[in-house]
Amino acid sequence: MFSSLWVSEQYKNTALSFKVKEILFSKQSKFQKVEIIDTYDWGRIMMLDGMMMVTEKDEFFYHETISHLPMALLKDVKKTLVIGGGDGGTIRELAKYPSVEKIDLVEIDDVVVKASKKCLPELSTAFSDERVSMFFEDAAEFIKNAEAESYDLIIVDSSDPEGFAECLIGTDFYHSIKKALTENGLFISQSSSPLSQTEDFKKTWRNLNFIFPYNEIAWSLIPTYPGAFWSFVLASKSEIKKELAHDFVPENCKFWKPEMLQALLCRPNYIASLIQ
Ligand code: SPD
């Protein structure tokens, strides 16, 4: 059937548009509008309040970077926490590691998980993994109340730092993250596009440096996010050695391979100039 319907993500004065095959899911939750739309060129996409979260075609760049990069730097990870990430892509990648015993997922909006389970079968495979526990609550409260040194790896897989997600780049939040991390544990957060969301990126980096003694920046490509050139910040209470900590290679990756570690941690001059 021919469709003339297009959906766009508008970010400031730029928009990226996708031709719609079919709207599969559309619901106004307590927090946001959750939509899953089948498109011609990018497969099924998830949008929250009109902002692109995932497309089936390019989600692997994002989910493989945010999970395998920190996992490559850590030895024998057992306890993990994912904040946001209700589409399931990040926990799908963490579930590839036999050493991981616990994957806690804190997602404020249960409708995001419901939509993914219903319409995104390639992303939602790990929801039934017995190591996964789901908490539908505010992440800032959850982490404030978490036990000290209770996670080896904490991942923030959030939407842009606006509205209810804004606190996820604040110093209070980072302070709670620091407390909840084990001594050699690692924190990673998506940190916006240095190109199109420069101020968000700089603020995230500044706040993180204020709280943690050791910090790094990684980058990746996400073609359907504003700017496409994406960043991730890492932090730890211990020195972050930029080398592989083990030789386990997760299966079925489309982007990640151990050699990517050096590439993604290599800081382009453009990023270096932003944080001088
Ligand atoms: N501008 C969109 C940033 C969204 C990052 N998180 C997306 C969730 C994917 N699991």
Please provide a brief summary of the model.
The chain is of the alpha/beta class and 276 residues long.
Fold and architecture overview:
The protein is α/β, with parallel strands linked by helices. The chain is 26% helix and 31% strand. The chain is built from 8 helices and 12 strands. It has helices at 59-73, 89-94, 110-119, 139-144, 171-180, 198-211, 260-265, 269-274, and strands at 6-11, 14-28, 33-39, 44-48, 51-55, 79-84, 102-106, 132-135, 151-157, 181-190, 214-221, 229-236. A 7-stranded mixed β-sheet has the order 8-7-6-9-10-12-11, sandwiched between helices. Strand 2 (14-28) and strand 3 form a beta hairpin. Helix 5 (171-180) packs across helix 6 (198-211). The mean pLDDT is 97. The structure holds spermidine (SPD). The site of spermidine has 14 residues, from strand 5 and helix 2.
Order of helices and strands: EEEEEHEHEHEHEHEHEEHH
How many distinct beta strands?
Answer: 12
The level of helicity is 25-40%
Query: What small molecules are bound in this structure?
Result: spermidine
Rounded mean pLDDT is 97
Low-pLDDT runs: none
From the helix content, strand content and strand pairing, which structural class follows?
Answer: alpha/beta
Give the biggest beta sheet. Answer: 7 strands, mixed
Strand content: 25-35%
Distance between the termini: 53 Å
- Count every helix, treating DSSP H or I runs of 4 or more residues as helices: 8
Outline, from the CA principal axes? globular
How are the strands of the biggest sheet laid out side by side? 8-7-6-9-10-12-11
What is Rg? 18 Å
